[in-house]
Amino acid sequence: MTQPAEASRHHTFVDACRATIGAAHVLTDPHDTAPYVTDWRRRYTGATLAVLCPSSAGEVAALVRLAVEHHIVIVPQGGNTGLAGGATPDSSGEQAVLSLKRLNRIRDIDPHNNTITVEAGVVLADVQARAQEAGRLFPLSLAAEGSCTIGGNLATNAGGTGVLRYGNTRELCLGLEIVTAQGELWDGLRGLRKDNTGYDLRDLFIGAEGTLGIITAAVMKLHPQPAARVTALAALASPHAALEFLALTQRFAGPLLTGFELMSDFCLKLVGKHFPQMRYPFAESHAQAVLLELSDSESEEHARALFERLMEHALEEGLVEDAVVAENIAQSRAFWNLREHIPLAQAEEGLNLKHDIAVPVSRIGHFIDETGAAIAEHVPGARMVTFGHLGDGNLHYNVQAPEGVDAKAFLTQYQTSIARIVYDSVHRHRGSISAEHGLGQLKIDEAMHYKQPVEVQLMRTLKAALDPLNLMNAGKVIR
Amino acid sequence: MTQPAEASRHHTFVDACRATIGAAHVLTDPHDTAPYVTDWRRRYTGATLAVLCPSSAGEVAALVRLAVEHHIVIVPQGGNTGLAGGATPDSSGEQAVLSLKRLNRIRDIDPHNNTITVEAGVVLADVQARAQEAGRLFPLSLAAEGSCTIGGNLATNAGGTGVLRYGNTRELCLGLEIVTAQGELWDGLRGLRKDNTGYDLRDLFIGAEGTLGIITAAVMKLHPQPAARVTALAALASPHAALEFLALTQRFAGPLLTGFELMSDFCLKLVGKHFPQMRYPFAESHAQAVLLELSDSESEEHARALFERLMEHALEEGLVEDAVVAENIAQSRAFWNLREHIPLAQAEEGLNLKHDIAVPVSRIGHFIDETGAAIAEHVPGARMVTFGHLGDGNLHYNVQAPEGVDAKAFLTQYQTSIARIVYDSVHRHRGSISAEHGLGQLKIDEAMHYKQPVEVQLMRTLKAALDPLNLMNAGKVIR
After folding, report:
1. Prediction ipTM score
2. Which CATH class is domain B228-343?
3. Given an 8 Å threshold on Cβ–Cβ distance, is A251 in contact with B200?
4. Residue spans per domain, chain B
5. Whole-prediction pTM value?
C-alpha cells in the first residue's frame, strides 16, 4: 500500500520529469503505459509510476539525477523484445520505465574505420541497413531484429546466428556512452581497436542489463561485405558426428564459415508437419542435420566449390550421410527458412519448455546423450526439440509434452523438475544456463544457485559500488 | 626509514610466506631478487621485501591472505618483459614481488572446443607450440614471445601483430581463474562462446595489470591452422593512399587478411643503413611501404593468386606504386624481418622517443600529417620513425634526434614537450596514449591528464571496491 508521503514523493518526481523532458514524453495513462509494462513473451506484467521517453543522453542523465533525488527505481527499456523479463518493471507501481526509443539517431558512420556510432534506441535492422548502404556488414542478426534496439542488444549481450565468426554483441562494440547511476554522462565513444589505458568499463556495462548504468550510445564494429553467402545442408548420424564434421569444416573453410546450425530430425519433422509447404530436404530420414553457411569474399562460385570439396571429403570419411549445396540465393534462403521455422513449428505443436544453454562445443554430444536419457527416464515419451548454434556450443534445448499429453498440464507438472535436470547437466559440463538471453528476472535464482559464492560476492560488490542506492533496474540480474 | 615495528611486521610476513610455500621459494638475498626489481627496458629499479614464487593458485591465495593480514603490497610479475614498469616494485623495499613463473602447467587442451587452459606463468611461445602440436593456431604473437607469460599478456591485454584478424589478448580469452584481493580463489575457467549470466568479471581483470586481483590461469581460444601464410609488400605515396589500399584489401581478402603493417621510407632506410644485408625491396624509393599477410585456409597458390589480383587492381587504380608478392616461405619471412628490424635499427641509430599510440584507422593519415608538422616546427630536423599496425590504427610513433645532434641531450631537452605534442594530437583524434603497452607506472599521469573526470572516478570506485586496502600492485594504473 502506497503511503501518502510516498505518493507525494512519486508525484513530485513525475512533475519534475515533465518539467525536464516535456509532459508529452512522460506517459502515465494506463492505456499509454500498457505496452511498456508487459514483456514480449507475456510472462511478466508489472506496473509503473511513469514511462519516461527522453530524446537525448543529456535528458537521460537529468532524469537519473531526478531519480536519485527522489529515490525512484529506473527500468531502462529498448525494443522490449527481451526473453528474460529484464525490461519489465515490478508490480509495485513505484518504478519508472525509461524508454530509450527516442534516442534513435545514427550519429556517424566511418567506413575507413569500419565503425558506426549509434544511439541506444536505433533498431538493429536500421543499423544493418545503414552499414549496407556504406558497403559494410553489421553482422549482428537475430529473430527480433526488426524491433529490438542496439541498446537492448548491448545490455543483454545478444548472440544470434553470426557469433561463430563475428562474436556476440560484446565483441562488436568498441565504445559506449553511459549515464551512470549518479546521473553523470561518460563519453566512452572510442572507435579504437587497441586501447590499454585503464579498466575495461565498457565490458562491465555490456551484458549488465541496465543494472549498473544506462547505455545511451555506442561505437559498433563493421566488417567488409562478403561477395557471397552460400549455405548447404548435411545429414549426419549423431551430434558426435556433427562435432567431427565441424572440425573438418573449420579446417577447410577457416574464417569463411559463418554458420553451423544443428537440427535434430524431430525438429525438421515438426516443421514439415506444421508447414507442409517446406520440403524435407533429404531423400531419407537422418538423425541430425547441419545447416552450414559460408561468407565468401571472392564469389558464389568459389564458396560452392569449397562446399563441394568439403562434402566430398566428409562423405568419403563417412562423417556425413548426405549433403545438398544450395544452387542459388533462393535455395540458400530456403535452408535458413527451415531452421527459422523450428520455433514456429514448436509453438504450433503446443506449449513447451525452453532452455537457452551453452556448453563447451566438445561436450555437446555427451550433453545431448546424457540429458536426453535423464529426461526420458523422468518423463517417458517427452519429446526433445534440440537445435541451435552448434558452432558456439549454444543449444535451444526445448522439451515438448509426450504425444497426446496435455501441454499445459505437462508444463505445470514438470517445468521445475525438467529445468533442474537440464541445468544440473549443464553445470556438470561447465556450461551456461543462459547463453544468449541474459538473466533478467527469469533466471536470477538459478544463477545464484549455480554460481560460486565468491563470484556472487564479486558481482554484489560491483553493484553496490556503482549503484549504491540500488536504483538501476533493481531486482534484475543480482539480488 | 623503516621503523622497528614496521621491520618486525615485514619479518613476520616473510617468515609466514616461508612456512606457506617453502623457504626455497621466498627470495630475499639481493643477488637473487635483482632480476625481479628492474624492468626489461631498465627504466625502473625498485627494491623488495621478498620475491615470492608460489607453485599453485592455492599457494597464491594463501600468500595474498598473508599480505592482507600483514598489510603488504603485492606486485604480481610474469616474464618481466612489460614496457611500462607495471611489474616493478617501488623503491620503498616494503612491497613483495609475486612471481607467477612456477605456475607453468598447460592444464588442458580441447581441440574440438578450440580452447587451451593454461596457468599464468606459461611462456607465450609454449602456448603457441602446444596449440600447433594439436593442429591449432594460438594467434597471439609479439616480440617478447620467448619470455613473456600468458598471465602478463592478459594483465596488460597485449596486442601484437595478429590483432587485425584475431583481436587483442582480451578477445582471445574465454575464462579466468583469479585470486581476489581478499585471497579468495574464483574458478571462472569457462570455455564458452556464449554465457550471459551476470557481470563480465573476466574483462575487468584483463588489462588491469594486477591492480584488482591476480590471474592464475586462463582458458584461451584457439583457431584453425591456416594452410598457408603468404606476405607481400606494396609501395605507396602516402599514409592516405595506404588507408584506401586497406579498404580495397579488406574487400578482396575479407578475414584472410591477418597483417597490414605500415613502414615509412625512413624506417626502411634505417634498416638498410644498420643491417646492409637486408635488401631494400623496391627498385626506387617510395614514401611509404605496407607489409601485407594473408592466412589462407586453402593453399599458398590460392593466397598468391588473390594477392596478384589485388595488386593488379591497386596498381591500375593508382593506389599502389609498386608491389612484390613473396614467392615462397623464405621470402615471406624476409619481408617480416624487414619490419621486425625497424626497432633494432632505431636502437642502433641512437636513443629516441617512443610513443605507442592508436587513433581511429580513418584518422591515421591526418594524425601523421598534423603531428609531424607540429614536431618539425618544434624541433626542426627531428626525424620521425613511423611504423606500426595500420590495420588496427596502432602506430609506433617514434622520434629520433636531428642528424648530428646528440641523442641524449635531445631526449633530455625534448622528451616532455614532444610527448605533449604527440598525446595532444592523439587526444584531438580521439585516440589512445597507450595502445598495447598499458599504463603501468610510466603513463599514469598522462592517463589522468587526458581522461574525463567521470571515467577516472569510475576507475577509482572499482579499485576501492575490489581492493579496499590498496594492496594489489599499488601505485600502478590508478592513483
Report:
1. 0.97
2. alpha beta
3. no
4. 106-224, 228-343, 350-428
5. 0.97
